[in-house]
Design goal:
Elements lengths: L5 E10 L14 H13 L3 E6 L5 E7 L3 H8 L3 H4 L3 E11 L14
Antiparallel strand pairs: 1-3, 1-4, 2-3
């Protein structure tokens, strides 16, 4: 039986009313959003994130938080405040396969 390696939280956003299409870098409040994300990275919360190729939204992978803590962590994102993104889903994810980190399975999770 395969054991769970880690619990992570997936956060999915859809494009909001102020999304301008094109590059994520061209969205209103990009600099503030980037600084916000840099802070999440420095705190060990943000693992991966980025826009969907079709510009329909974005997805982030968080760790070291539960679902409620993830909601609290992203609540201050300037892209949510200014309508570039709308929160679509926050979901706990039990990771069984993780070839990116090379971590051994942890049966305690």
């Amino acid at each position: 039986m395969t054991s769970v390696k880690a619990r992570r939280v997936l956060v999915r956003f859809r494009a909001g009313p102020t999304w301008r299409g094109g590059s994520i870098l061209d969205q209103p409040g990009w600099d503030e959003h980037a600084a916000f994300i840099d802070d999440l990275i420095e705190r060990g919360v943000m693992v991966m994130g980025g826009p969907f190729a079709d510009s329909s939204g974005s997805q982030s992978l968080l760790e070291n938080v539960d679902e409620q803590q993830a909601r609290e962590a992203i609540a201050g994102d300037p892209f949510l405040a200014n309508g570039v993104f709308e929160l679509e889903e926050v979901r706990l994810w039990n990771v069984f396969v993780d070839e990116l980190t090379g971590e051994a399975p942890d049966a305690s999770i």
